[in-house]
Amino acid sequence: MGLGKWVCLIFILHVFLALPISSNPEGLAQNSVDFLDYAREPEISEWMIGIRRRIHENPELGFEEFETSELIRTELDKMDIPYKFPVAVTGVIGFIGTGKPPFVALRADMDALAMQVHPDNEGVEWEHKSKIPGKMHACGHDAHVAMLLGAAKMLQKHRDDLQVQISCHHLSLKLSYTLE
């Protein structure tokens, strides 16, 4: 398993093993096993890697992430996850769970950096390098978005077992804001 798959798996396990998702201890143990089994399925990690690569190839600066935001909304639509858009111009907030307390927020930045890079862009030969001159995801926000979408996918699959409201925030830069 490559480094990217391990990072995704560790992130997902960290998120799910830390959440009290069931009031039934036996149900909680079974849900943990279900999450682990689902996280190990190649379709999940390959899907997340594909999302990350698409975002990496098309970096957008803060408050200009229109294509990234559209990709996120498309994926949330496929998962039947309701969302609020726009939030701070291009941001998206997806909602999973009961709609009642307790509330948990997961967040990912989605902006790229303006960078002067090698004329071949990124200075490496890789089929998924940035296709936009002077911009790239050297910050890892492309991976953040992919991991948060992966977490949303897993949570949505187990939404009926959740005893919590989870919001997944895809935002530009380090915004501070209040939900209405």
Structure description:
The chain has 180 residues and is α+β, with helices and mostly antiparallel strands. Helices cover 43% and strands 17% of the residues. It has five helices and six strands. It has helices spanning 3-18, 25-40, 42-57, 66-78, 141-157; strands spanning 83-87, 91-97, 103-109, 113-114, 135-136, 165-171. A four-stranded mixed sheet has the order 1-2-6-3, covered by helices on one side. A two-stranded antiparallel sheet has the order 4-5. Helix 1 (3-18) packs across helix 3. The longest helix is centred in the C-terminal third of the chain and has 17 residues, at 141-157. It is globular, with a radius of gyration of 17 Å. The protein starts with a helix and ends in a 9-residue tail after the last strand. Mean pLDDT is 81; it is low at 16-22 and 176-180.
Helix tally?
5
Average pLDDT taken over every residue: 81
Question: Largest beta sheet, briefly?
Answer: 4 strands, mixed
Uncertain regions: pLDDT < 50 for 5+ in a row? 16-22, 176-180
SSE ordering:
HHHHEEEEEHE
C-alpha end-to-end distance = 42 Å
Question: Helix/strand/pairing class, anyone?
Answer: alpha+beta
**Rough outline:** globular
Strand order of the largest sheet: 1-2-6-3
Percent helix:
40-55%
Work out the number of β strands. 6
Q: Using the CA coordinates, give the radius of gyration.
A: 17 Å
Q: What portion of residues belong to β-strands?
A: 15-25%
